[in-house]
Design goal:
Helices cover 84% and strands 0% of the residues. It contains five helices and no strands. Helix 1 packs antiparallel against helix 5 and helix 4 packs antiparallel against helix 5.
Amino acid sequence: MSSGMMVEILRRRAYSMLEGARWRLSRGEYDLACFEAEQAAQLYVKSLLLRVLGEAPRIHRISELLRRLYSALRDEFAQASEMLADIVSSSRRSIWFLEESYSQGRYGYAEYTESDGRECVDTAENLIRRLEEVERLVQGAVEEKGR
């Protein structure tokens, strides 16, 4: 299977998980909404890593995945790496909460409120939307170099 096909599989799963998180939130299933929101964000970052590096690491912490993405972009795609650094800096607490919700949803017994669920879903939506912008910058730089 080509890496392009694998990127599309991860991307499709990320969007599906995000839709599932929204649905869970609407049903009052806040812990599962948080869990699915985290999975959506994680899969999206992995799809971008796969696109940029040709591989997606088998790690789960979004912050570590974002660090690896930053390192991959830093030298060749300065504008995209700067945008990514801004995303991480402005969302650090929300990303941490999203990561925590994954661990608690999988291994713990935490109860989440509607506010928690909304924060998780909003964080995942915002992160994915902003990573789409990073990807457009990378694609634009690649096209520019090809001219």
